[in-house]
Amino acid sequence: MTSKTLTAPPVALGTWAWGDSGQVGDGYFGSELTASGLREVVEKAQANGFTLWDTAAVYGMGHSETVLAQALKGFARGEYQLSTKFTPQLAGDGDDPVADMLERSLDRLGTDHVDLYWIHNPADVARWTPRLIPLLRSGRIKHVGVSNHDLKEIALADQILGEAGFRVEAVQNHFSLLYRSSERAGILDHCREHDVRFFSYMVLEQGVLTGRYGPDHPLPEGSSRAAAYNGILPQLRTLTDRMRAIGEDRGASAADVATAWAIAKGTTPIIGVTKAGYVDGLVRACGIELSGEEIAELEALADAADVDTRGSWEHAM
C-alpha cells in the first residue's frame, strides 16, 4: 500500500523549458537559461513553499532532469518532491522498459526515489500500468499518476493498480481557460469524487494567457510556440484585457489571474518557471479569490474566442 496520501503545494513547478538549449529552432521555447538563474528560481520557490518539481525523461531528452538536479543541490531530499514521467512512445525494447526509464531518470535526478511517477501518454494502459506495481512495492516510486489519459483510461489504470492495493492518485492534463476538455468530459468531477489530485498543465498556454503577447507583440519568431499561437492572438485580446483588468484590481497580472482561475477550479496548476520573479506571481495567484461571476465571465470570453489549443500529442477527452 502507498504509505501516505499524496500531498502537494497549491502550485507545482514545471521544468519543460529547462530541457531547452536556447538555440533557435532547437526546443520549444527559445529561452536562454543559465545554471545560476535556475538556481535562483529554486531558492526562491523553495523559500515560498513551492516544493514540487515536475519534469520528464523526454524534456530535452533527459536534459531537464539533469539541470533540475543541479539546481536542487544542497537541499535535503525531504525538502522537495520530484515528479517525472515514463513515456510509452519512447520505451526501449528491454525486458522492463518502465523500470529502465525510471532508473535513468533516478540517475539523472541523483536520487533513489521519485515522489510522483506518471505514465506520460496512454499508449497501452493494460500493458504499461502493471509495470508500476513492483516499483511502488520497492519504494522507488511513492505515488502514481497518469497524464493525457481520458476517463476510461484513468479507470482502467486505477483498476489494475487497485488489484495490488495501490491507486491512481493524480491526473495531469492540459487544462486552461482556452482548453477545458477535462472538465467537459467529467474528469474533474471524477477526481473530486475519488480524492485524486488533478494537475493542470499549459494553464498559461505557453505564455499566451500572460497578457504579455498580442498581434503587435507576438511570440518569439522561430519558436514552436510562435507557430502554434501567433495566428490566434487577435481572437484572445478581449479575454486577456479582461484578465489584466481583474488582476489590476488586486495588484496582480493577467498570468496570476489565469493561475488563480485554475486553482479556483480545484486543480493544481503546473507553472513553468524560468525566472525567479515568476515566483512572486505564484504567491499572488495563491492569494487571489475570484468570484463566481468573474470565473463565469472569463470562461464565457474564452469560449467566445473560439480557438482550439489542443496539443499534437493529445487525443480528445
UniProtKB/TrEMBL annotation:
Q: Is Oxidoreductase one of the keywords UniProt gives this record?
A: yes
**What residue stretches are annotated with the NADP-dependent oxidoreductase domain?**
11-302
Query: What are the record keywords, sorted?
Result: Oxidoreductase
Where is coiled-coil annotated?
none
Q: Which domain of life is it from?
A: Bacteria
- Can you quote a single GO CC term? cytoplasm
Mind telling me what this protein is named? Aldo/keto reductase
Q: Whose protein is this, by species?
A: Amycolatopsis acidicola
